[in-house]
Design a protein that fits this description.
alpha/beta; 11 strands; 320 residues; 42% helix
């Protein structure tokens, strides 16, 4: 959209006849990226001092929980983010909770100490639960989350499935959440795992919409991490369907110095929203994988419209 000095990054294939024009697609990209969210570990938050230099005020920053941590680090990181003008969104991993009392204590700390009114509710990666909860619905059904001032709840979406959970179970779990949100009026939304090919995610969103989903969906995107890092995380997270496409394109990926931006994914997601006005893909969530600042500046340039879409090649020229 701007004509300032830019860095060229490969993107999607050129448009074909009948596709949205360049201006419409550029506006769709900026709209998709407006209000993007991003993850940062407590260590990254501490080093970045709240990221006020690379994120605009009010940005929702998700703080993950890891299996060998207690929630003290999460609370401290959320408070640092709040003090820096960000909106902290802590993860709550239900399989890591040892009791209902701990659940209530953690929720109280999120609200009273961290100033959080939103969280991302996950089952967590533990093979065996540490306490009475092995599914997120069990925690939702306690009613404790809204009682402690949490007004917005993210839940996980798996467009490419999960290595640990059958597809039928993933479908059933999401359908339970649709019904729960409708019955209670709670503001639930879906955050997907990251991916390398937009097509399976676009297809998945349409399929769950056909099954009754009305919850907004944030597409999980990788940050500007190294190719080696992306492949390692993809294998660990079970991102199988789109990893093959990524690997087939690795020759061109390696030309982009040490990092791969998800620009092609952004273009294709924006294009899909123009083609399908009923799409519930309403934003993007970034998993930076160690590159919070670079990813934040890159995403911020898109959200601010500081880019151009090359009509011939389909490439994005981004002011980083």
């Amino acid at each position: 959209m701007t004509k300032q000095s830019t860095q060229t990054v490969e993107a999607a294939a050129p448009e074909v006849a009948g596709e949205p024009g360049t201006d419409a697609l550029e506006h769709a990209i900026a709209s998709l990226m407006e209000g993007f969210t991003i993850e940062a570990t407590p260590q990254e938050v501490k080093r970045g001092n709240g990221f006020a230099d690379c994120l605009r005020p009010g940005t929702r920053v998700f703080v993950p929980w890891l299996q060998d941590w207690d929630y003290d680090r999460t609370v401290v990181a959320c408070r640092t983010l709040r003090d820096a003008g960000m909106t902290p969104v802590p993860h709550l991993a239900v399989r890591g909770l040892k009791s209902a009392d701990q659940l209530e204590a953690v929720l109280k700390r999120f609200r009273d100490e961290a100033g959080a009114d939103e969280l991302l509710l996950l089952a967590g990666g533990l093979a065996e639960p540490a306490g009475p909860f092995d599914r997120t619905m069990q925690v939702l059904e306690t009613g404790l989350i809204p009682e402690h001032g949490i007004r917005r709840i993210g839940v996980a979406g798996h467009p490419e499935g999960s290595p640990d959970i059958p597809d039928t179970e993933l479908t059933r779990a999401l359908q339970e959440k649709y019904a729960f949100a409708e019955a209670t009026g709670l503001a639930l939304h879906i955050v997907t795992q990251f991916f390398f090919d937009a097509a399976p995610t676009v297809h998945w969103e349409r399929s769950i919409r056909d099954q009754g989903n009305r919850l907004p969906v944030s597409a999980g995107l990788h940050g500007l991490a190294s190719v080696t890092t992306l492949i390692r995380y993809a294998k660990a997270c079970g991102v199988g369907k789109s990893l093959g496409a990524f690997m087939r394109n690795q020759g061109s990926v390696m030309k982009i110095a040490s990092a791969k931006a998800p620009d092609g994914l952004v273009v294709e997601l924006a294009r899909s929203r123009l083609r399908d006005p009923g799409s519930l893909l309403q934003g993007c969530h970034f998993f930076p994988f160690g590159s919070v600042e670079r990813t934040a500046r890159w995403a911020g340039a898109l959200a601010a419209g500081k880019f151009e879409l090359d009509e011939r090649s389909g490439a994005l020229k981004i002011e980083c």
